[in-house]
Write a structure and sequence with these properties.
The protein is built from seven helices and no strands. It is an all-alpha fold. The protein has one domain. Helix 1 packs across helix 3, helix 2 crosses helix 3 and helix 5 runs antiparallel to helix 7. It starts with 15 loop residues before the first helix and ends with a helix.
């Protein structure tokens, strides 16, 4: 049997450690933003509910009438935070896959911001409906406000992608 090094590697595989660091950095910046919002009285995501939803997905249930009324999952808070960071890393890896190594060497904020805004599609069209809030939070008392908050949060994530990638590029120079 041939060693694994004899097989061709996907071109993006060597970039994945960078993508992980960019994703963690961007997610951390988003979390700092969420802490700031929470301290000023703005409602933010309860990551325990994300963990509850993920736990139910693993048990075969994707959609809920209201995730708050779903049965709690053991370790849902930790699972929610783990999922939150894993999603951030996955989004960063997709950005790196779309932009390539050149973007990691010389990141641009418009690409990162545009990608961050694009990732808002996940909560608006997947997570919120699956958790019972409807598409773009239409089943909540203030759907426009909630949707705009999702866009703002993901714009901050996008800026975090840029800041993290720029910091890594400076360290590598």
């Amino acid at each position: 049997m041939e060693p694994l090094s004899q097989f061709p590697q996907p071109a993006l595989l060597p970039l994945m450690p960078h993508a992980v660091l960019v994703g963690v950095g961007a997610t951390l910046l988003m979390d700092l933003w969420l802490v700031l919002l929470k301290r000023t009285g703005v409602p933010t995501m309860d990551f325990a509910l994300l963990g509850r939803w993920v736990g139910h997905v693993f048990r075969g249930r994707f959609a809920h009438e209201a995730i708050r009324r779903a049965a709690p999952i053991a370790g849902e808070t930790a699972l929610g935070w783990l999922a939150h960071y894993a999603i951030g890393v996955a989004f960063a890896a997709l950005l790196v896959g779309l932009q390539g190594a050149a973007w990691l060497r010389s990141p641009t904020w418009p690409a990162a911001l545009a990608w961050g805004l694009a990732t808002a599609a996940a909560p608006l069209f997947v997570l919120q409906p699956a958790m019972g809030a409807g598409i773009a939070s239409r089943r909540t008392p203030s759907p426009l406000k909630n949707s705009l908050r999702s866009l703002a949060n993901h714009a901050v994530f996008g800026l975090g992608l840029y800041v993290s990638a720029a910091a890594l590029a400076r360290l590598a120079a």
